[in-house]
Amino acid sequence: MCEYCWEKIAKADDTEFLDSLALNYAERAVLEELYKQGENRIIEILELQGKALHDAIQELSEELLIDIGELGKVLVSVQNGDLFTVEFEQAVYDAFTPLYHLAGESELSALSNDKTWSTKNKAASRFAKNLQKLVPDMNGTSKDTMTRAFQKAIKEGKTPSERALLVRGISAAAAKGDAGPFNMERSITISRTMSTAAANGGKVEGWKQSEVVTGKKWRSSKGDRTRKSHKKANGQVRALDEPFEVGKSKLMFPGDPSGRAEEIIRCRCTMQSVLK
Ligand SMILES: [Zn+2]
User: Fold this and answer.
1) What separation in Å is there between the alpha carbon of 108 and the centre of ligand 1?
2) CA 132 to CA 151: how far, in whole Å?
3) Locate the Phage head morphogenesis domain: which residues (predicted)?
4) pLDDT truncated to tens, each residue of the chain (276 aa)?
């Protein structure tokens, strides 16, 4: 799909999701700005990662280029290298921790006049750590995608140099973001997943601090793309410190980064508070 189309889809989904957070105008403007910054930073990092991979592939001899084991080593060294791990963790922290605080603070101030949100709460640092744990998972996904593409190219080539040429072609396309894991679609996926986690995680913490809210109710997002397991979870009520049961995962909130990837990637579900 074209970049413009992805942008349009992302925008439509975000509007629906942001509406459900019931923020005031100023909060919403801040949130949209943070979201955009996070997404842009992730796009930048993915581009750099794609280019670094391509550079490393370029340096391989023809013989090594058609050896999937060698290609795997290059992938691991680029993706798990300190540079990108640190960059990713920092980007995730900078972009999505403020969303968490914003969501928590806005819920708390709506529920209680005498309580003030503290940005130094333990739940927030636990949340940031959990979110950063998604980084190796994300890198694992892109390694798998590239490995499959390389394997296919090696199979398709008739002679060794033809195979090497095909492998180079795949790496060049990935570096440009035309195909593979370093494109715009992927950065939207990552930033959406993280923004859902941050907004819902902050909400639950704000409710806890209010001491008025006792429970939470899962609200699945509307639309055809909502997972069956999430539609099934719609209306599920739990105490604030009890997890929802969604598919095979136990999630404290939609997008909970400690849950399985299959239940949190691109989730747009939200929650409603249950009062005493
Ligand atoms: Zn969902």
Assistant:
1) 24
2) 30
3) 148-271
4) 455 655 655 565 667 767 766 677 877 788 778 878 888 888 888 888 889 999 999 999 999 999 999 999 999 888 877 778 888 888 888 888 888 998 898 889 889 889 998 877 788 888 888 887 777 777 777 888 899 999 999 999 999 999 999 999 999 998 888 877 887 778 888 888 888 899 899 999 999 999 999 999 999 987 777 889 999 999 999 999 999 999 989 999 999 988 888 899 888 888 999 997
Are 92 and 132 in contact by the 8 Å Cβ rule? The answer is yes
Q: In a 10 Å sphere around its CB, with 0-12 CB exposed, 13-18 middle and 19+ buried, how is residue 173 labelled?
A: middle
Number of folded domains that form the chain:
1
Looking at the domain assignment, is residue 273 inside a domain? no
- For residue 246, give the 3-state DSSP assignment: strand
| Reported pTM | 0.81
Structure tokens at 94: 């900078």
CA 167 – ligand 1 centroid, Å? 37
Residue 51 covered by a domain = yes
Flag whether 218 is in a domain. Answer: no
Residue span of the structural domain in which 33 resides = 3-212
